[in-house]
């Protein structure tokens, strides 16, 4: 299956069941938390490689690992996670206003309300991978876009802010506000997004000055092309 294929309902349930199973670590993310986590990574200020964020799915310290039956199952689960991530990336690239966070619905006094707390907790975890790099949006004129994420996802909020998240109706409104804000948060970072840091490796071994010149002249490198290189410096 190609990595650019979105998860089918069956595959979504397969990943969901694995994350909730006894073979996943106790602190493994649920699907809604995972979706928030991947969203923060997808739209945030820096490109973060899977080798860094994948271990965090199984626990905050990144040291817990699932009890896969075999290498084939591990490959399968990682493939599902990567496709889940790519679905987020592609949606923001092609149609950011159509992005739908994976919020949980619940009944409250006869109303169907949205609970975005677990999703926002995941988003906050994604931000924590590069905490300082998010400062620019918090300090900008559009900093209020991040307020629902803070209220619903931060470990601690101000005491006077608690009623905003403890009341299910007000929390529902915050969730709707967050969904509306996500395209603008994405838009803020597009021109500012930094590529991952990569180490440039020399393709060919370095030639010593006393080695034979690789051009085949039979002369020492320092007497041949090495002399030209030195003159060019």
Automatic annotation (TrEMBL):
<protein>
    <submittedName>
        <fullName>UPF0149 family protein</fullName>
    </submittedName>
</protein>
<dbReference type="InterPro" id="IPR004027">
    <property type="entry name" value="SEC_C_motif"/>
</dbReference>
<dbReference type="Pfam" id="PF02810">
    <property type="entry name" value="SEC-C"/>
</dbReference>
<dbReference type="InterPro" id="IPR036255">
    <property type="entry name" value="YgfB-like_sf"/>
</dbReference>
<dbReference type="Pfam" id="PF03695">
    <property type="entry name" value="UPF0149"/>
</dbReference>
<dbReference type="InterPro" id="IPR011978">
    <property type="entry name" value="YgfB-like"/>
</dbReference>
């Amino acid at each position: 299956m190609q990595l650019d294929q979105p998860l089918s309902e069956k595959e979504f349930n397969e990943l969901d069941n694995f994350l909730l199973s006894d073979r996943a670590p106790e602190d493994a993310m649920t699907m809604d938390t995972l979706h928030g986590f991947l969203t923060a990574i997808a739209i945030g200020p820096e490109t973060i490689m899977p080798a860094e964020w994948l271990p965090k799915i199984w626990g905050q310290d990144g040291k817990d690992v699932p009890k896969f039956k075999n290498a084939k199952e591990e490959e399968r689960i990682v493939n599902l996670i990567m496709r889940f991530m790519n679905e987020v990336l592609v949606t923001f690239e092609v149609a950011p206003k159509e992005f739908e966070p994976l919020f949980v619905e619940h009944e409250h006094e006869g109303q169907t309300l949205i609970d975005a707390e677990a999703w926002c907790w995941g988003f906050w975890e994604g931000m924590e991978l590069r905490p300082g790099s998010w400062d620019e949006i918090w300090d900008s004129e559009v900093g209020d876009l991040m307020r629902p994420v803070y209220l619903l996802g931060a470990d601690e909020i101000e005491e006077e802010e608690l009623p905003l998240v403890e009341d299910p109706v007000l929390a529902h409104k915050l969730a709707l506000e967050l969904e509306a804000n996500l395209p603008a948060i994405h838009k803020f970072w597009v021109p500012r997004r930094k590529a991952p840091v990569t180490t440039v490796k020399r393709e060919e071994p370095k030639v010593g000055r006393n080695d034979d010149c690789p051009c085949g002249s039979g002369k020492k490198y320092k007497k041949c092309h090495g002399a030209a290189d030195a003159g060019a410096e």
